[in-house]
Design brief:
The complex is a heterodimer of chains A (about 475) and B (about 500).
Chain A lengths: L1 H7 L1 H19 L6 H25 L4 E2 L6 E2 L1 H21 L8 H19 L4 H19 L6 H32 L4 H10 L4 H17 L8 H8 L2 H8 L1 H17 L4 H24 L4 H22 L2 H27 L14 H4 L1 H15 L5 H13 L4 H26 L14 H19 L2 H14 L2
Antiparallel strand pairs in A: 1-2
Chain B lengths: L2 H16 L5 H25 L6 E9 L4 E7 L1 H20 L7 H20 L3 H10 L1 H11 L4 H30 L6 H6 L4 H18 L8 H8 L2 H26 L6 E6 L2 E3 H22 L3 H22 L2 H33 L4 H4 L4 H4 L1 H14 L6 H16 L1 H26 L16 H19 L2 H11 L5 H7 L2
Antiparallel strand pairs in B: 1-2, 3-4
The chains are: A mainly alpha (about 475), B mainly alpha (about 500).
Chain lengths: ~475, ~500
């Protein structure tokens, strides 16, 4: 048991150890070094940890599990963990140029701990571990959000996030305890059997509603989305990037697993519920985004809209739709991370409102080209990755949920409008007279171009990722 | 070889971006070279294979998991439109020789648009077709919003939102076709053979048809067209009216009608007097013809006159498609080509020759400037262009509109008569615009000196005029391509189900 545990959690252990190492390194050896050195060393150490974890992950035999589904290792979880690690590396590399805090080691360590939590979250089929991972993840994200001690907005956002998060965790836990009460088990597989036998149980319905509400908070689906605009706007850009990208990947996957593996038997009960949440998210997210003047808030509302699209895949709850959702959420996370990378590059200018993107194309063509790629990918314009994700989700849903697809299509037209509003400022408007060239740190540039290249490549050749996901899903859920 | 029209255009866009910023000539020359190469390839392809049958250019698996292929091919109809794109692209660059602001960006976006348009006409995989169709949307926005005139940002946003909304409908139909056929393919050849269930075709056809027809300027979804054309810079409005509107019409024919021909069948009941989608869309096309021409008659802005005339002429394309007989549909394709050339020419004269010199497009003000004396070349071009536009014999417009009228006479005689009225109104607004612009009552204004017509303008105008004349005098040149394509296996279902 112990050896199996150590074996299966090796990548998580590596990442967690790297987090501790970074803490020690920063607190002991780098105490007197300059802030640039401290961030540089912490990030390098953290990235090394992630890379080692990737290598470990790659060399593992991709099958195995602990009793009660506490940890399940299969090609799909392996793929997702890899994606999470890559996303974390990209976010960490951005942090090199962060100067808003002096706690370099703690910041990087927190990102690593968040990564550990996400990796655990995607590789478990046990309610208890799911809850613990979610709480672990949430706690690190609350701290990351409020990390800028000088900023009132960050403190407010973190408090709001924490209060909402605490409440939704309670609801989630209540729902899970009901599931446990009904089935007498924490394992999704056993719960599934009970659910199949009595899908009409009113307690079950209550449990489903509560679990959905708890997860709805994590994925920022309407009407559980209130925290998102505040956090996106108030949190330090680098923290917001983690909240918006990799944490979404893990939460969406966990949500899908809980419903797909555990509650499949009562699918007839929860598909309408999730459809309602999806519709609310798509409509509210996209329409509210139109009215935003702050780019960060706009991204938050667009994230709510995207949550709606991805929930369509859950409504369909087929293997194909799982493939579609995984592809969607990974490419979405990449494009969002890229968008936040652009924001972090503009950090020195305190850019927030859309108007402040005026003439970005003149001031820095490369930066604004990357922004163009990311936003058009989010809008779902081919040949970028976001388009194929949408296409595949729609294909998987069109047979049984035509009206949802039509609504999603209509809303994606709306979303095109507000993304274009930002691009209009960047490309069409002239820069304010006397605006200086933008200084973009070299590492940020590398991340920007790397992410943009990934978005383009995954859009032009979706099969690179898609075939892997398909194979993984097929072998994971036979 | 045809595939290189696409690759060269995209490559040209990259090269233009990499050119040194200081020399606009380099950017222009690169763009022109690329466009000329594209035209050359199109002509070579046209000369090398005159059968009009389907030629496969490239066919490779693209997303094997979904059965999506990278499949470029061309039949007669594609070839005709590729040729049109080549001509319009070259002419557009010649007429934007005077763009000074952000030259590199301008030509790069222009070439991306051209490449995407080539891509749509050559794609024989629906997914790929859609990808190119959407790639074409974004450059349009920036071309209009950055280099445009009158209310450019509004017009650009309106245009792309209409386009995007249309393409959303298309995407829905496309995904549905993929799922319903169950063949795990989006290959046009395969889907064209696939007998979709009739009730599915009944709703998929209007969805996809309307989606594409938005871009073809079908009434009542045409409102993006006049504002967009008027706001766009000359080259962009040439491409918009000349080629991009044809993307929509092409999609209507190639996707909606070819895949879902049974959608045109009678419903078996009548709503408001309509018994089938064929009648609905024919009436909408007819309204477009008459409405566009009537509105053009009262416009004060010369570019709006031409913009609305485009709506009217595109109405002929859609009416031709809805006749569902060989002469009408081939006339529609011919009209796509013909209107592409003529609209480019009109916008070139209005936007480049007149507006860039006089800085006004108001008919009232233009009539006080003796333009015919100041820039006689423009006057002659404009006269010829309007003669072509109203369908005088000898120009391509004559053949095209005659065929559409003949076709629609067979299908719905009454509508044919009304379309004839549309042509008459067309003559009236052309006459009015012509007179006000070039032969206005003369003038007590001090003599102005306008810059002379430049060489690129002359070349561009000659290229376009030569094309419309050649096709007016020798229609066999393209008809030999269009007819075999329409009689080929791809349209077999359409012929079998609806060819009347």
């Amino acid at each position: 048991m112990t050896s199996a545990l150590l074996q299966l959690t090796a990548p998580e252990i590596v990442v967690a150890l790297a987090g501790l190492l970074v803490l020690v390194l920063d607190l002991s050896f780098l105490r007197r070094a300059s802030i640039a050195v401290r961030f540089g060393c912490s990030v390098s150490a953290a990235c090394c940890g992630c890379v080692i974890a990737l290598v470990v992950l790659g060399s593992m035999s991709a099958a195995g599990s602990l009793p009660a589904g506490m940890l399940v290792m299969n090609p799909l979880t392996q793929l997702l963990q890899m994606a999470l690690l890559v996303l974390s590396i990209l976010s960490l590399l951005l942090v090199v140029s962060a100067r808003f805090t002096t706690h370099a080691g703690e910041y990087c360590a927190l990102i690593l701990f968040a990564t550990t939590a996400m990796m655990l979250l995607v590789s478990t089929q046990n309610l208890l571990i799911i809850f613990i991972s979610i709480e672990f993840l949430s706690l690190t994200l609350y701290v990351l959000t409020g990390f800028d001690k000088e900023s009132r907005a960050a403190a407010e956002a973190a408090l709001k996030y924490f209060l909402f998060g605490g409440m939704s965790a309670g609801i989630l836990l209540f729902g899970m305890s009901l599931l446990y009460g009904i089935s007498g088990s924490l394992m999704l597989g056993t719960i599934a059997a009970t659910v199949r036998n009595s899908p009409g149980d009113p307690l079950l319905l209550l449990a489903i509603v509560m679990v959905l509400a708890g997860f709805g908070f994590k994925i920022a689906a309407a009407p559980f989305h209130m925290w998102a605009p505040e956090v996106y706007q108030g949190a330090p850009t680098w923290s917001a990037a983690v909240v918006a990208s990799s944490s979404k990947v893990a939460s969406f996957f966990a949500l899908f697993v809980v419903f797909y593996l555990g509650l499949m038997g009562a699918a007839g009960r929860w598909t309408p519920l999730i459809a309602i949440v999806a519709v609310a998210s798509m409509i509210w997210g996209n329409l509210a985004a139109i009215a935003q003047t702050s780019v960060r808030r706009l991204l938050a509302y667009s994230a709510i809209g995207h949550a709606g699209y991805m929930l369509i895949a859950l409504v369909v709850h087929s293997r194909q739709s799982l493939v579609a959702m995984v592809y969607y959420v990974i490419t979405y996370a990449l494009a969002t991370l890229g968008a936040f990378a652009v924001l972090s590059a503009l950090e020195g200018e305190k850019v927030d409102s859309i108007d402040e993107f005026r003439g970005l194309a003149k001031r820095d063509p490369g930066l604004s080209f990357c922004l163009l790629i990311f936003l058009l990918s989010l809008a779902g314009i081919p040949p970028l990755a976001g388009f194929f994700g949408k296409f595949y989700v729609f294909v998987s849903a069109i047979n049984s949920w035509l009206w949802l697809v039509l609504l999603a299509l209509a809303m994606s037209v709306v979303s095109f409008y507000y993304y274009l509003k930002i691009l209009k400022q960047a490309y069409v408007s002239e820069p304010i007279a006397g605006a200086a060239a933008i200084y973009v740190p070299a590492m940020t540039r590398i991340v920007l171009w790397g992410t943009a290249a990934l978005v383009v490549i995954l859009g032009c050749l979706p099969d690179l990722l898609l075939s892997r996901i398909t194979v993984a899903v097929d072998s994971a859920f036979r | 070889m045809l595939a290189w029209t696409i690759y060269l255009s995209f490559l040209g866009a990259v090269m233009v971006t990499l050119m040194p910023a200081k020399s606009p000539v380099a950017a222009r020359a690169t763009a022109l070279g690329t466009a000329l190469a594209g035209l050359g390839i199109a002509i070579a392809a046209l000369l090398s294979d005159r059968s009009g049958q389907l030629i496969t250019v490239v066919r490779k698996p693209w997303i094997p998991g979904l059965g999506i292929e990278y499949h470029l091919a061309a039949d007669g109809i594609s070839l005709v439109l590729v040729l049109l794109t080549g001509i319009a692209a070259v002419a557009g660059i010649l007429f934007s020789w005077n763009v000074e602001r952000r030259v590199k960006d301008f030509f790069a976006l222009y070439l991306v648009l051209i490449g995407a348009v080539y891509g749509v006409f050559l794609s024989f995989d629906l997914f790929e077709l859609f990808v190119f169709y959407e790639i074409a949307i974004v450059p349009k926005y920036f071309l209009i919003a950055i280099w445009g005139s009158t209310r450019r940002e509004y017009a650009a946003m309106k245009l792309v939102l209409y386009s995007f909304a249309g393409s959303a409908l298309v995407l829905a139909g496309l995904a549905a076709a993929y799922v319903v056929s169950g063949e795990r393919t989006l290959n046009l050849e395969a889907l064209a053979q696939f007998p979709f269930p009739v009730h599915f075709q009944m709703w998929a056809f209007p969805l996809v048809f309307v989606g594409f027809a938005v871009l073809a300027g079908m009434w009542p979804f045409h409102t993006w067209a006049p504002t967009g054309h008027a706001a766009a810079p000359t080259a962009a409005s040439m491409l918009l009216a000349g080629v991009v509107m044809k993307l929509g019409a092409y999609g209507c024919l190639r996707v909606a009608m070819m895949l879902f021909p049974r959608g045109l069948d009678p419903w078996g009941f009548r709503v408001l007097g309509f018994g089938s989608w064929q009648q609905v869309f024919a009436v909408l096309a007819l309204i477009g013809i008459v409405y566009g021409a009537s509105i053009a008659l009262v416009q004060k802005d010369l570019k709006f006159v031409v913009g609305y005339s485009s709506v009217s002429h595109m109405g002929f394309v859609l009416l031709g498609l809805m006749t569902l007989n060989q002469i009408g549909v081939s006339g529609a394709v011919y009209q796509m080509f013909s209107h592409g050339i003529i609209a480019s020419l009109l916008f070139a004269v209005v936007g480049r020759m007149v507006y860039d010199r006089t800085h006004t497009r108001e008919l009232g003000e233009l009539s006080r400037i003796p333009l015919a004396r100041l820039i006689p070349f423009a006057a002659v071009t404009f006269v010829l262009a309007f003669m072509a536009s109203i369908g005088l014999p000898g120009f391509s417009g004559f053949i095209a509109e005659l065929e559409v009228l003949l076709g629609s006479w067979r299908a719905f005689p009454l509508m044919s008569c009304i379309a004839g009225v549309g042509i008459l109104i067309g003559i009236a607004f052309s006459w009015r615009a012509l007179q006000a612009t070039f032969f206005g009552e003369s003038t007590n204004m001090p003599e102005q000196v306008l810059p002379p017509i430049t060489m690129p303008e002359r070349l561009g105008a000659c290229l376009l005029l030569a094309s419309t004349l050649a096709l007016g005098l020798y229609p066999k040149l393209l008809m030999d391509l269009i007819l075999p394509a329409l009689n080929g296996p791809l349209f077999e279902q359409l012929r079998r189900s609806g060819w009347r």
